Amino acid sequence: MSHGLPTQPAEAFTKRRRALAAQLDGPALLFSGVARPMNYPANIYPFRPDSHFLYLTGAWLEHAAVFIDGARDILFMPAPDPDDAVWHGPGPGWADMQQATGVSEIRDIEQLPQFLASAPATATLPAIDAITRFHQGRMLSRSWADPGTPTQLNERDGALANAMIASRMIHDAAALEQMRVAGQATVAAHTAGMAATKPGMRESDVRAAMEATLLARDMTTAYGSIVTVHGQILHSRGYDNPIAAGDLLLADVGASHGGWASDVTRTWPVSGKFSATQRTIYEIVLASQLAAIDLVKPGARYRDIHLAAGLVIAQGLVDEGILKGDPEGLVERGAHAMFFVHGLGHIIGLDVHDMEDLGDRAGYAPGRERSSQFGLCFLRLDRDLQAGMAVTIEPGFYQVPALLAPGSELTQPFDADNSLDRAKLAKFADVRGIRIEDDVLVTATGNEVLTRALAKRPDQVEAMVGVGVG
């Protein structure tokens, strides 16, 4: 897709550019980025344009940039290379690209430095890849040590960042169309993974079944898949473990469609039957997720929803005797974070953690800062929800050895005041990690679970495991 035309009408991108320009006092320039080599120049990682550039143009272009100034848009892109047609086939011409993106004109990217010499007040956002960021900084007199640190943005660039956040935070119809297709593919991938699961396989076998479903739709994953029997490893990247009866398999896999992401996690028993202890904890996590989803609506503060989800988990663990005390007090002190260490979720859109290249400027509303409390400090989103936003809701329960080891900095206070009953916890040794995650759209009247077609009730999940095994 290195020369791919947008897959949606040009009007959608023109409308986005005009909405962004209306929030700015001057011109802006966004770069597409470049493909990066793995080990020698011709062996490159799959290219994916910068998300801000993709949002405004829909064009799958390397070495490109879009200039926006009021009602004028200029797409700067490389001139056609005859060698490229030999090795990669013919690409769209400039006229085709102009019509597909709706820009005012297209110019050779080699003209960009000279063009910018006459536009010194142009705002920009730091590119993620170092090569583009170097050239960008040289042309626009910028220097960023870390592109994800919003305090390093000057006033013009900060205004552009805020405008981009406001634009991308509320999804338009074109974005939602892409996200729904990504969600449907993700549901199919998880269904295939459950169906393929049987004892004696390896994690990689299930991963292959899931990702094959996406490849068959000409899609890829939105992030590195997590498919593991070690669900306590939050970002597991290995797939070589055997899966056996008695194991829970945690799969965090999401499709990318036209760059738009889906992000879903399900946890299921390899044997097709939860043990009594596994089912107990699974139902606690599910109750937490369902309670959190019910709270998703315009005006709700995401941090409050996170704490409400934690309260359900704390109550469930008190009911099982694992935690002792008043659930509200336990959440206030962060005791539940021993088992639910991460935040409830995040914004989702063109990136699975949408706009996190802009740091907490995107995830946190002005005037709000991250808590220093363990667990709550990992919350990626603290904004009041608005209709059109899309978020993930993904509570979990994990027995992370590094966190639960006696004497650890986290558990020591709860051991000292007898809030944690390790003898009761030991009975749940077959529950390494459980997470249940869906993509949720905030609507005018509440919410819509974009991935609701994927079963998550324990009986439904059990019935889906192994059905495709001959």
Task: Indicate the topology.
Layout: E1 3-4, H1 10-22, E2 28-31, H2 51-57, E3 60-61, E4 65-69, E5 72-77, H3 82-88, H4 94-101, E6 105-108, H5 112-116, E7 123-124, H6 130-140, H7 155-169, H8 173-196, H9 203-215, E8 220-221, E9 226-228, E10 248-253, E11 255-257, E12 260-261, E13 264-269, H10 276-295, H11 302-319, H12 327-333, H13 360-363, E14 390-393, E15 396-398, H14 401-404, H15 412-416, H16 422-426, E16 433-435, E17 438-442, E18 447-449, H17 458-464
Parallel strand pairs: 2-7, 5-6
Antiparallel strand pairs: 1-3, 2-4, 4-5, 8-11, 9-10, 10-13, 11-12, 14-17, 15-16, 17-18
Helix pairs in contact: 8-9, 10-11, 11-12
